[in-house]
Specification:
Number of helices: 12
Number of domains: 2
Largest sheet: 9 strands, mixed
CATH class of the largest domain: Alpha Beta
CATH architecture of the largest domain: 3-Layer(aba) Sandwich
Oligomer: single chain
Structural class: alpha/beta
CATH topology of the largest domain: Rossmann fold
Bound molecules: D-ribose
Number of strands: 14
Order of helices and strands: EHEHEHEHEHHHHEHHEEHEHEEEEE
Shape: elongated
Distance between the termini: 65 Å
Radius of gyration: 29 Å
Helix content: 25-40%
CATH superfamily of the largest domain: Hypothetical protein TT1679
């Protein structure tokens, strides 16, 4: 095993002791300074040790300053470095088992020599557990470092057991939060149309169309129906691709907007659970293939955009997921028209 070690003046003495301790054990230690108690800047040594680990010159790094804080912050700026400040052996063990830390940070003015040596031994002897949940979380840190925000958003979605509907109480609570936020931003007026696309399969952690859940539809639709009825908004529930993403609306909506009715009955695997539920719950339900909604809520990436009127404007919702389904939302605004002299309301 190769270990790179570095310290500032606050960690110099402890570095020397640790270096001797490790060399006695036959461990190959690369000392990257500092080499005296003269005052120096800790970032330089944090970067040097972090770089030695990332380049593969060392398997692990040990960094020491007065508290372990400044030098760990510096090491952590090197992409791929996971430096953990430890003041006891429990954290040292979990830093390896859970976080797969590759740099140990110590405070030369905080931790006594005996304890510091125990921490070093535990850290270097403990393997990463390799458990999937820990690996996923570490991958998320890496994704952030690489700027892969999409991968990160996906990885951040709650992990639900595929095919098992999330606890209805939690689902209802999250849905309530989503609806509140959506309603506040969508500013729908009575008579306007809200398009809902919802893959109950994605909510239960399965691929769209693979695990339609009436139970999920039964949890989600009633509170939404209450809201649209209170506010006089028309709800249009989009069915799946197998019925051309046709939508269930109420006859009153069809009449108001002069929509063209089409004939198809939403079914579990040709329409989806939410469309089936809407068909059962609506007053005089009818199917339409074309509509131009004023706002839309999309649970599970069902692509409702084709049913929204131009111009579509995204709505950012703080609750990013419902069960395992990704949430997106949009409102619309009238097009800005005219030429160079046209004036627009602010
Ligand atoms: C140096 O005085 C001190 O600030 C440094 O060793 C370290 O504790 C920084 O976090």
């Amino acid at each position: 095993m190769k270990v790179a070690i570095g310290a500032d003046h606050g960690g110099y003495a402890l570095k020397e002791t640790i270096k001797a301790h490790l060399r006695e054990k036959g461990i190959d230690v690369q000392d990257l300074g500092t080499h005296s108690t003269a005052s120096v800047d800790y970032p330089k040594f944090g970067f040097a040790v972090g770089s030695a680990v990332i380049s593969g010159q060392a398997d692990f790094g040990i960094v020491i300053c007065g508290t372990g804080l400044g030098i760990s912050m510096s090491a952590n700026k090197i992409p791929g470095i996971r430096a953990a400040v430890c003041t006891e052996t429990f954290s040292a063990r979990l830093a390896r088992e859970h976080n797969n830390a590759n740099v140990l940070a110590l405070g030369g003015r905080v931790t006594g020599v005996g304890l510091a040596l125990d921490i070093v031994d535990v850290f270097l002897q403990t393997p990463f557990s390799g458990e999937v949940r820990h690996a996923r979380r570490i991958d998320m840190i890496g994704a952030w470092e690489r700027g892969e925000t999409n991968a990160l958003a996906r990885a951040s979605l709650p992990q639900v057991k595929a095919g098992v509907a999330p606890d209805p109480e939690n689902l209802a609570r999250d849905w309530q939060k989503i609806l509140e936020e959506f309603w506040a931003q969508a500013k729908l007026r009575p008579g306007q149309i809200l398009v809902l696309g919802c893959s109950t399969s994605e909510v239960v952690g399965q691929r769209i169309g693979r695990g339609s859940s009436l139970q999920v539809a039964e949890t989600l639709l009633p509170p939404l129906l209450d809201r649209v009825r209170e506010t006089g908004v028309f709800l249009a529930v989009q069915g799946c691709e197998h019925i051309n993403r046709a939508l269930v609306v109420e006859q009153a909506c069809l009449d108001k907007y002069g929509l063209e009715e089409v004939t198809v009955l939403p079914a579990l695997h040709a329409g989806g659970a939410m469309a089936v539920k809407a068909w059962e719950s609506f007053a005089r339900p009818v199917m339409v293939e074309k509509i131009q909604g004023h706002a839309g809520l999309d649970v599970g990436d069902t692509f409702i955009g084709m049913h929204l009127r131009p111009v579509v404007v995204p709505i950012r919702i703080a609750v990013a997921a419902l069960g395992a389904a990704h949430i997106t939302a949009a409102r619309t605004r009238p097009r800005l028209i005219g030429g160079v002299r046209a004036v627009y309301p602010q």
